[in-house]
């Protein structure tokens, strides 16, 4: 065997030195470590995308909650009581409406306004069934969705037209032959469709034996003086509307507190053939 002179290096030593210098130059990293870097970067980008998506979802939900709570909300017309202004008949494509929640923060309901309100006493709830499931988990999910307008609220919401406001006196007597009166003056109600009342009113004391229609389009009532911060509401489909007239025996004499009004109806948004605004016609003008 030949000894290696002390002042010289073998080829094996030179290769080891090159590898050490390469490690030092690369910061000690091995080639198989560098191959993992693209995967780490892709994982970071994926987490970043998930984080951004979560932020967007939260922002959308917060914005939706703010709009539903303070600006406006969508409702489905539940019955025929407001035809032909709003359609809600059995078997029909019921109108979907949007209410304005801002207007009554700066003012009060006026005669002719079409409003959505919560039934103020138990007498309004006789034919109402809660939309909530009996299952605790499903009910909790429905309550959560209702916060963002994706499910109906758990309350009996109704839609009618304001006829009289606080301090006014409302009444109707068929013998007067002038229809509904407020403060002794007959109302002008172009939104009440006479043909529809004749068609639907045969069994509701609307059509007299001689073929003429009762001017009250239902039972006589009043006089009722509306308390302060309350309104008297009636359906446009007068002969098919369980409105204030049918709740006069409750503690509020059929009136609705302004605090129970959810908003003023502004638009029909569905079906597309009926898209448009919902006007307020003051019957006292």
Structure overview:
Keywords: Hydrolase, Membrane, Protease, Transmembrane, Transmembrane helix. It is a single-pass type II membrane protein. It is an enzyme of class 3 (hydrolase). GO terms for molecular function: serine-type endopeptidase activity; signal peptidase activity. The active site is at 81, 160. It is a single chain. The protein is an alpha+beta fold and 285 residues long. It folds into two domains: 11-58; 77-277, Umud Fragment, subunit A. The protein is 26% helix and 20% strand. It has five helices and twelve strands. The protein has helices at 11-25, 31-34, 37-71, 136-147, 194-200; strands spanning 72-76, 96-100, 114-118, 157-165, 169-172, 181-182, 185-186, 221-225, 230-234, 256-257, 261-270, 276-277. The strands form two sheets. Strands 1, 2, 3, 4, 9, 10, 11 and 12 form an eight-stranded antiparallel β-sheet that branches. Strands 7-6-5-8 form a four-stranded antiparallel β-sheet, with no helix packed on it. The longest helix is centred in the first third of the chain and has 35 residues, at 37-71. It is elongated, with a radius of gyration of 36 Å. Mean pLDDT is 86; it is low at 1-7.
Distinctive features:
285 residues, alpha+beta, Umud Fragment, subunit A, 2 domains, 8-stranded antiparallel β-sheet, 4-stranded antiparallel β-sheet, 5 helices, 26% helix, elongated, disordered N terminus, transmembrane
Supply the CATH superfamily name of the largest domain.
Umud Fragment, subunit A
Mass-distribution shape: elongated
The end-to-end span amounts to 125 Å
Order of helices and strands: HHHEEEHEEEEHEEEEE
Task: Let me know the number of strands.
Answer: 12
Largest sheet: 8 strands, antiparallel
Which structural category do the helix and sheet elements fall into?
alpha+beta
Proportion in β-strands: 15-25%
CATH structural architecture of the largest domain: Ribbon
Name of the top-level CATH class of the largest domain? Mainly Beta
Number of H- or I-type helical stretches? 5
The name CATH uses for the topology of the largest domain is Umud Fragment, subunit A
Contiguous uncertain segments of 5+ residues: 1-7
Please give the domain count: 2
Rg over alpha carbons: 36 Å
The whole-number mean of residue pLDDT values reads 86
- Which percent bin holds the helix content? 25-40%
């Amino acid at each position: 065997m030949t000894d290696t002179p002390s002042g010289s290096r073998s080829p094996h030593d030179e290769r080891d030195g090159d590898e050490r210098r390469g490690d030092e130059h690369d910061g000690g990293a091995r080639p198989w470590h560098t191959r993992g870097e693209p995967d780490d970067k892709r994982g970071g980008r994926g987490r970043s995308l998930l984080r951004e998506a979560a932020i967007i979802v939260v922002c959308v939900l917060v914005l939706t909650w703010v709009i539903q709570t303070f600006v406006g909300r969508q409702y489905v017309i539940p019955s025929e009581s407001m035809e032909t202004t709003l359609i809600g008949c059995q078997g029909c494509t019921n109108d979907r409406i949007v209410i304005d929640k801002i207007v009554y923060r700066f003012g009060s309901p006026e005669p002719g306004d079409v409003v959505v309100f919560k039934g103020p006493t138990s007498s309004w709830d006789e034919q109402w069934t809660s939309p909530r499931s009996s299952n605790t988990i499903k009910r909790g999910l429905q309550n959560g969705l209702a916060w963002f307008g994706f499910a109906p609220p758990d309350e009996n919401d109704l839609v009618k037209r304001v006829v009289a406001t606080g301090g006014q006196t409302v009444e109707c007597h068929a013998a007067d032959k002038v229809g509904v009166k407020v403060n002794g003056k007959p109302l002008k109600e172009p939104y009440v469709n006479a043909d529809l009342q004749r068609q639907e009113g045969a069994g509701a004391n609307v059509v007299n034996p001689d073929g003429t229609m009762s001017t009250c389009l239902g039972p006589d009532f009043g006089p009722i003086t509306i308390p302060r911060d309350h309104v008297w509401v009636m359906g446009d489909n007068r002969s098919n509307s369980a409105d204030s007239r049918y709740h006069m025996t409750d503690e509020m004499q059929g009136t609705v507190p302004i605090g129970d009004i959810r908003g003023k109806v502004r638009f029909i948004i569905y079906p597309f053939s009926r898209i448009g605004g919902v006007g307020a016609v003051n019957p006292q003008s």
